[in-house]
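User: Please work through this fold.
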Amino acid sequence: MSDPDILQRFQVVLWRPKSPGNVGSVARAMKNMGFADLRLADPIAYDDPGYFEREANRLAWSASDLLRRRAEHPSIAAAVADATLLAGFSVRRAPDRRSASPRALAPRLLQAAQHGPVALLFGQEDIGLTDDLLARCQVLGTIPSSAQYASLNLAQAVLLVLYEIRLAALPAADGALGASAAGDEVPSQKEIDACFGRLSRALDHVGYFAGTGRDHMEREVRIALRDVVSSRRGLSLIEGIAHRIQLGRRRA
């Protein structure tokens, strides 16, 4: 069965994976499901330079070519800079955030991929995604595993998510999803980060963070506005507000 072209717009991003074998298994799962863009964010450096390659290739099997093409980035921000949607998958549930199963999310992710690259973020094997990383994500997904033992192996989790996306994409491989609307552009994660940076500086100028835990408040602002900045119009609105705040401060 041929692979739907839309799958090439997805990025599988692994944050600091501890086991090279897991990375190799993820590469194999990606090739099984027709995905090709593997990215490592803030990867762990090993004393033996050849250790990672040996262990990862041992479990990658026929996906060694995909493993070799992986991109390594110094941070999450760099790894997902060109993505127009960031979806995080974790057994941990963020407070006051809705999380859906991969099957429920798949249609939305495919629709977003019509507009630009979609990053699928998976956390470190033992701790998953941190609160800061969860706050960055515009969409959250949780695999409905048993409460008696909810934690999945990293490669298992990736395989289940990619399977659901592939399954949802197959009936639409003939273009049933339709083309994106003219002018309905979606900003990249790099643009969103820059926007929040400008807003944070503007709020700092008026003392918004005074007497508070700044990191916590910045995270809360990001969560509150994540849907607004998911569109070009919303991003421009927030940037305009930040500009007005700074302009008013200078005039005061």
About this structure: Residues 5-172 form a domain with the Alpha/beta knot fold (CATH 3.40.1280.10). The first helix runs from residue 20 to 33. The CA atoms of residues 106 and 167 lie 9 Å apart. The chain has two domains: 5-172, 189-251.
